[in-house]
């Protein structure tokens, strides 16, 4: 069950430096910016506002309950 909190909690999961999935207790857009261009096609490379070069894509977050998000927050603090 998701909610519509004004301040959602987002949990980013990493494995070997790679984001595996992003979970949130609210529907939020997730923008993934990857500055490692190895394997990227030239048509995929963008110029971010801070300069440089990166691939940029929009991902959907994985739904999680507010209780689960709160438990992650407790583990992180």
TrEMBL record:
<protein>
    <submittedName>
        <fullName>Uncharacterized protein</fullName>
    </submittedName>
</protein>
